[in-house]
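Page 47, continued from p. 46.
Same chain as before, 510 aa.
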Amino acid sequence: MKIFIRRALIHISVLLIIFSLFSIATPYASALEDPDIQAEAALLVESTTGQILYQKNIDARRAPASLTKIMTVMLAIESYTAGDVSLDDVVTVSSNAYAGITADGSTAGLLEGEELSFLELLYCAMLPSANEACNVLAEYLAGDIDSFVDRMNQRAAELGCTGTHFVNTHGMPNDNHYSTAYDLYLITRNAMSLPLFEDIVSVHSHTVPATNLSEARQLTSTNMLLNPNSRYYYEHASGVKTGHTDAAGYCLISTASNEDRHMISVVLGANSVVIEDGTTQVQSFSETIRLFDWGFENFSYQEILSTMNLVTEVPVRLARGRSSVVLRPAESISALLANDVDINSAVLTPTVYSVENNQELFAPIDQGTVLGSVSVFLDGVDYGSVNLVANTAVTLDKLAYIKYEISSTLSNTWVRLFIILLFLLLGLYIAFIIIYNKNRRKRKKAADILARKRIEELRRGEGASTGHSFEEIEDRHRANAEETSKLLSADRPEKSGKTKIENLKDLFRR
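Result:
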């Protein structure tokens, strides 16, 4: 039995060791994998927030090829938005339309002397990537092509581009004509904020009406992501522009939206390769699709801070039945995050205004009252801040309030001095009353002594002269006093016809 148990323990130990080694050797399943885009440079940005999700050589100078036309058409539409031109303006193709353009360059076949509307030239420049249409727009807007190119470089600097320089309007090869993946993203982001630009680059085809020198033209976008019949069709895509030269390779800037996520992809310097089935694959399209799929599959908007989070607790004075109030966020904070991010690792940094200002917080407090703010950090990134508000109402304890007011009043130096002075005056008044009453009692006692002496004298003198006893004399005086009082209070003369004064005289004679 012991041997069996020992062998069982040995087997269990071996299994645990194997399991541990397997766990160490297996990578973390939810770790975000690099898509390893096959291109010289690539960038994926969430366009709403500007958050970079993927980058590869984004600051390296590259030949932009026809991606240059994004800037050209953007400037043309900004002129329209400013009211400098109208979409219905008729523009004549000049002899300079094909200046600097090689025979193998993309074109819409515009002819010298041909008249097109300003709007149709925009479609020609973006959908079939017509080089001559860009030169025609430049001449119409700036008077000459070189002046328009100067405006292109000036606008690039205004948008924050630091690795871009243009020498033409269309992107034909030139050693001094270059840009970067990040700069092209900045230009495209601004261009896509113009509704007309977005409308033009989002369509697969467009018909240009007949002109004075041509039948109607059917334009088709070079962006295969928009073509439902293409092997590269991508249902979430909505633009923007392709580009290709031997120097630039295959390039594509595209936008795509999936529910609440909106992305801009830049792929520069991709190749055209033969795949297993023998067909040719243009990797600017295939890698863009792969980059979008990677972004949509691995990133989503997640709530980092909820309005239900109880962030901190603050002491409150004079509150009924409690000594503090709990604070919660007034708004939630959400961000586009990798799906494997641990939201619970977010760091909340609250700021309570009363504490910050070294002040006490007093009741009453209404529910929802702003009492502070909270900042949210995740993996070192600041995702903003929102107000902190009282989670519940705090009522005032009236008895505690009265005690506090009394205590606060008595703690005032001037109030204390006033009370002391008041007590001094009260003491002086009481002393005065005591002395006054004491003197009054002395005077009364002296008067009583004199009265008694007088009574004794009257008793001895009047009693002897009249033959009446002292008690009889007192009774007579009392009766006289009562009668005097009645006479003085009477409203009219007595029946005898005598006045009150006369009656009094008679009384005193008696």
